[in-house]
From TrEMBL, chain A:
An annotated Gene Ontology molecular function: phosphorelay sensor kinase activity
Keywords: Kinase, Phosphoprotein, Transferase
Modified positions (4-aspartylphosphate) in chain numbering: D50
InterPro entries named among the record's database cross-references: CheY-like_superfamily, HATPase_C_sf, HATPase_dom, His_kinase_dom, HisK_dim/P_dom, HisK_dim/P_sf, Sensor_kinase/Photoreceptor, Sig_transdc_His_kin-like_C
Entry protein name: histidine kinase
Keyword match Coiled coil: no
From TrEMBL, chain B:
Name assigned to this protein: Response regulator receiver domain-containing protein
Annotated organism of origin: Chitinophaga rupis
GO biological process assignments: phosphorelay signal transduction system
Domain Response regulatory: 1-119
Pfam families: Response_reg
Residues with the 4-aspartylphosphate modification: D52
Keywords from the UniProt entry: Phosphoprotein
InterPro entries the UniProt entry points to: CheY-like_superfamily, Sig_transdc_resp-reg_receiver, TCS_response_regulator
Length: 400, 143
């Protein structure tokens, strides 16, 4: 609907007739005050405004209209027979008009302008509506996401707690099974080899379950918030090897550890990582060949398993290689998954959690892990780790 | 003194202790509250306390803290004696003033070795005894 504002009835009448003839809906007001009242009540696509009126003049009316948020986008065309001087025209535009037409006017041109401005107004309004709907939708989605995230965090925390308690409480009865089975062996099974054999099966199964629970417990601990410290990997690897001393001697293994860097890491987790990888190398040794395990590293300047060596790089790539039984690389993805084992339980002991823990630790340290191997020809695990965790976080946020 | 809610563990512990040294006077409590009450009443004054972690009403962590806050009791050495071998539990107990952290063994032979090392040395040099214990019994996590 179009609003015409003019204090002279004859002007209103002729303009109204012209627009109606061209199928526009028209409303009229005979003063600025009346125009403002109508604008508050109705929705207009265009206002044609006389400049000179008793009371509020056209400029004042335009300024008031463009001051309301409800009406600020309605285009205003000034129409004047008296104020045709350039300064009046300029004032008209300054007070919020989109056009300034002087009388006498050409009816065709006025109609074309009316058509253009009403169309523009409609399009703007449609765009605004779309924008509003979009904003509303974005807001709704964001809210939903935040909520979903909260729920996820909560259930994640519950799950961790659950895993921890379950593992912890499973230990007690298991330890008793082992203790009392041993007691039975010691006190009552002196001369019965078959009974002894069965009881030993009870004990070894229980021991196996115990290591499973311990590994699960370690895995659930990994979800705690990280505390990074500078860690001298040389020293840390040496300490870890001391813990594995018995197994190393038993297998007559030879270890070559080259110089390793100091990196920002979680020391306990790093210790566990090397322990698991070296234990694996010992475990999957060839039956008749003493294991030779090598650990070495190089600096690289990007998070990549294949990037060339760079003396001043911010990343290090660590290799742990062995001469053991190896594995077929088609199983590469599988070996890092929980409870995946490539060998029978009787062939090689293990819980199938060791490499899953290693992978999780690498993820927590924003690193990469992979391995190269061929069956019967040893395996080499490659780890890529940042020297500094803080630097990584900064570059990541910049990247976003 | 052994503070443990598990009666099986308590009776095995007592049995092995009597074998190791029949002269030892053994006292037990089923949780932290009971232990503190007995100690404060003066019905028992142990040379060393073995403390389980996971107990109802007052667990080992709380009991350890209460013992170390009590001026009349804080001198008594406390050895954690529990199923857990988690580094976090060990670290926490050692920080709170335990002298050692022993994971409950799964054979009487190991238990016997532990008690032999400790029973004879409580008055002489408990720390040295705990140190040698680490070399013989894998159950002793940190000494």
């Amino acid at each position: 609907m179009i609003l015409i504002v003019d204090d002279k009835q004859e002007n209103l009448y002729s303009l109204k007739a012209l627009l109606r003839l061209n199928l526009y809906e028209v409303d009229t007001a005979t003063s600025g005050e009346e125009a403002l009242k109508r604008i508050l009540r109705n929705e207009y696509e265009l206002i044609i405004l006389d400049v000179q009126m008793p009371g509020m003049d056209g400029y004042e009316v335009a300024e008031t209209i463009t001051g309301y948020s409800r009406s600020k986008d309605i285009p205003i065309i000034f129409l004047s027979a008296v104020n045709i001087d350039k300064r009046f025209v300029t004032k008209g535009y300054a007070s919020g008009g989109v056009d300034y037409i002087t009388k006498p006017f050409d009816a065709d041109i006025l109609l074309l302008k009316v058509k253009t401005f009403t169309r523009l107004y409609r399009q703007t309004k449609e765009l605004n509506d779309i924008k509003e709907t979009l904003e509303q939708k974005v807001e709704e989605r964001t809210k939903a996401l935040v909520q979903a995230n909260k729920e996820l965090e909560l259930s994640n925390a519950e799950l961790q707690q659950y895993a921890f308690i379950a593992s912890h409480d499973l230990q007690e009865p298991l330890r008793k099974i082992i203790t009392f089975s041993r007691l039975v062996i010691e006190r009552f099974l002196g001369g019965d080899p078959e009974a002894l054999q069965y009881m030993n099966k009870v004990i070894s199964s229980s021991e196996r379950m115990r290591s499973l629970i311990n590994d699960l417990l370690s895995y659930s601990h990994l979800a705690e918030p990280p505390r990074f410290n500078i860690c001298n990997l040389n020293q840390l690897v040496q300490e870890t090897m001391a813990d594995l001393e018995v197994a190393i001697k038993e297998k007559e293994a030879v270890l070559h550890i080259s110089h390793l860097p100091s990196i920002e890491a979680i020391p306990d987790q790093m210790r566990q990582l090397f322990q698991n990888l070296v234990s694996n190398a010992l475990k999957f040794a060839k039956k008749d060949t003493p294991p030779v395990i090598k650990i070495w590293s190089e600096l690289i300047d990007q998070r990549s398993l294949t990037a060339g060596i760079s003396g001043k790089g911010a990343w290090c790539r660590i290799y742990i290689s062995d001469n053991g039984i190896g594995f077929n690389e088609m199983y590469l993805d599988k070996i890092f998954h929980m409870f995946q084992r490539l060998h029978g339980k009787d062939e090689y002991h293990g819980t199938g959690i060791g490499l899953t823990i290693v992978k999780k630790i690498i993820q927590k340290h924003n690193g990469l892990i992979s391995a190269e191997s061929r069956e019967g020809q040893g395996a080499t695990f490659m780890l890529v780790l940042p020297l500094k965790q803080t630097a990584i976080l900064e570059t990541e946020t910049q990247g976003l | 003194m052994l503070v443990d809610d598990d009666l099986d563990d308590t009776s095995l512990f007592e049995e092995v202790l009597q074998q190791v040294d029949p002269a030892v006077v053994f006292a037990s409590a089923a949780n932290g509250h009971e232990a503190l009450a007995a100690l404060r009443e003066g019905t028992t004054r142990p040379d060393v306390i073995f403390l389980d972690l996971n107990m109802p009403r007052m667990d080992g962590r709380q009991c350890l803290a209460a013992l170390k806050e009590d001026d009349t009791l804080k001198q008594i050495p406390v050895i954690m004696y529990t199923t857990s071998s988690q580094p976090k539990d060990v670290e926490q107990a050692m920080q709170k003033g335990a002298v050692s952290f022993i994971t409950k063994p799964t054979s009487l032979k190991e238990l016997q070795e532990i008690l032999e090392a400790i029973a004879g040395n409580v008055h002489l040099d408990l720390h040295a005894a705990l140190k040698t214990l680490r070399q013989t019994v894998p159950a002793c996590v940190i000494c």
